[in-house]
Amino acid sequence: MEEAAPKKRFKNVHLGLLIFLILLGWFITAFMIVPNVSILKTVFFSSNGFTADTIKKIFHSTRAMRGIKNSFILAVCLTITTTIVGVLEVLFLEYFKIKGKLFLNICYMIPLVFGGIMLANGYLFTYGSRGFITRFISSVFPSLPLNWFSGFWAVLFLMTFACTTNYMIFFRNAFKSIDYQTVEAAKGLGASNFVVLTRVVLPALKPILLTCIILLFQTGLMAMSAPLLIGGKNFETIGPLILTFTQRPGSRNLAAVLSLFLGFFQLILLYIVQRNEKKGNYLSVSKVKTSLQLTKITNPVMNGVAHVVAYVFAFINLLPLIIVILFSFTDYQTISSRQLTMNSFSLENYQKILTDSAAYKPFVTSVIYSFIAAIIAVTMMTIAARIVFKYRNRWTEVLEILLHIPWVLPGLMFALGLVLAYSSPKWIVFNQSLTGTLVIMLIAYTVVMLPNTFRFIKASYYAVDQNLEDAAKNLGAKPFYTFVKIVLPIILPTILAMVAINFNGKLGDYDLSVFLYNPTAKPVGVVIRSNSMPEAGVEGIALNFVYSVILMMINSLVFFFVYADGKNKLKQWMAKSKKVTR
Q1: 252-305 pLDDT, tens per residue?
Q2: Residues 465, 466, 469, 475: is their CA dihedral positive or negative?
């Protein structure tokens, strides 16, 4: 057995690192611990001391209990429907011989760049009461209710296809790791395709499949955008209820109970995920793996059904995207009538974004907030991960646990905690009231970025050869010089990737922003939601389309460079183009 790495005390710590640790300790206390303590205080304490009256109010509130019930129903159903769709999409791409895989692959990747409030707004314009498809269907079937796409089934449909991202990234990668020799062996024994899938392939993917299912349950439980825009009054879930109660000062204690409820189930789900991870990897342990080969569906009927289902899934993802892009280039009259003609197309909407400060200000606000938060989070975690990696002792273990607090507690609970904690001046933030200020949303963005950023950057330090640092130290190089010249260049790709991912993740944020934004600096996610309201008019809808297209372009570029090895692919394309021109 390998001996455990010796624990190191903080000896000869540079003064700069000591100052950083003090500031980091203050940041964690002020913006991770205090907000969550405020939630507990609001729920369990009143002016008369300990009380459980607020919890009793929730149980006696018909609306709150219906919201909890709806959230659980959505969470359970979503795990079933999205698992079926997600697994089938991976099978269509990686297991069965289906024609047009490039097209299918692009369509199945759409939720990675077109999600959240953008996607919900796209579905609303496509299938809503005044939607493009609804107008077309109602012209054929006049008896169809205009609000047919609303309520539970509409939310479930939208989220089923919007939440396949974990399957397209994690489950698909795990699927590719299966040893094809096991599949061949099963087929050699006369097993059918169905038996091979259910008895050989899927059992080997049990850990990652369970993790995806658990994360889906969590997503359904905390859903915000889809129930808010599509659910209507007949299908309220916990997320929109917390937002509603938070906007009423007298009902914030009820919002605190609901957010605490989410936090409790988040802890349970985290525990289940950790137990699942400890059970190990069930993938093939063959020393020489054989890559999976596509399997042809021999039954012509089943082959036809598979092709139809594969392309139906693709067009469900593609249709709202195409409609949003097309209508972003049309005039107000076309958007209002939902009738496309060759004379409808115009660049007026994009011109407005570029020239009207009221139109481009929300987008600029989101870019600035997301970029600054990403830089702060990555800088903090680069130093923190370095300290944890270099000084392994009880204090660094505690620091690592504290940095994972935003992972344990849901974002809605954290946002509400910030509002409750800093609605009045507090000594820990120098007697300032932060609620409603420009800085509180930046703090929230930064905090929720910390856990993932820390984990990835800490992992990147293991790629640094310790012998290089020792050699530099023996040559008299100072620690800071060694870090800048030797360590930083090695971990820089991970640092840049985390800046891009964090920036991308918060660029169109709505869930956190709607609790914390300042009215003078509305982020684009909040504006998209406001523009989707009926009273916003055609101009708001047109701006939403342009916002969505620009956000998708940025998301696509980030996805291309971070996930699809875009830098190397560009180099290959440029090299090929040079050869052609010669």
Answers
A1: 778 878 877 877 777 777 677 666 655 554 444 444 455 667 788 888 999 999
A2: negative
Q: What is the pLDDT of residue 131?
A: 83
Find, among 233, 79, 214, 66, the residue nearest to 159 by Cα.
79
pLDDT digits (tens, 9 = 90+) for 478-527: 777 788 788 888 888 888 888 888 898 898 899 889 889 999 999 999 99
Overall CATH class of domain 353-582:
mainly alpha
- Measured between alpha carbons, how far is 110 from 130 in angstroms, rounded to an integer? 24
Residue by residue, DSSP assigns 189-234 as TT--HHHHIIIIIHHHTHHHHHHHHHHHHHHHHT--HHIIIII-TT
Contact 389, 464 (CB under 8 A): no
Domain covering 68-241+280-328: architecture = Orthogonal Bundle (1.10)
Query: Cα(440)–Cα(442) distance, rounded to whole angstroms?
Result: 5
| Residue of 566, 580, 524 whose CA lies nearest to 547 | 524
Measured N-to-C along each axis, helices 488-507 and 439-461 cross at an angle, to the nearest 10 degrees, of 140
Residue 476 region by backbone torsions, left for phi larger than 0, else alpha for psi between -120 and 50, else beta: left
Report the alpha-carbon distance of residue 418 to residue 367 in Å, rounded. 22
Spell out the residues 6+ positions from residue 321 whose beta carbon is closer than 8 angstroms to its own: 110, 114, 122, 552
What pTM did the predictor assign? 0.81
Distance CA 124, CA 118 (A): 10
Burial class (CB in 10 A: 0-12, 13-18, 19+), 252: middle
Q: Based on the number of CB atoms within 10 Å of its own CB, is 521 exposed (0-12), middle (13-18) or buried (19 or more)?
A: middle
- Give the separation between CA 495 and CA 190, rounded to whole angstroms: 50
- C-beta separation of 24 from 384 below 8 A: yes
CA 582 to CA 578: how far, in whole Å?
6
Asked whether 48 and 126 are in contact (CB, 8 A), the reply is no
Name the DSSP letter for residue 45. E
Give the max Cα distance, the chain. 85
* Identical topology for domains 68-241+280-328 and 353-582: yes
Phi, psi angles (nearest 5°) of residue 134: -60, -40
Give the long-range contacts of residues 463-472, CB within 8 A, separation 24 or more: 463/490, 463/491, 464/490, 464/491
Q: Where are the domains of the chain?
A: 68-241+280-328, 353-582
In whole angstroms, give the CA distance from residue 8 to residue 390. Answer: 8
Name the amino acid, one letter, at 569: K
Contact by Cβ (8 Å): 526, 510: yes
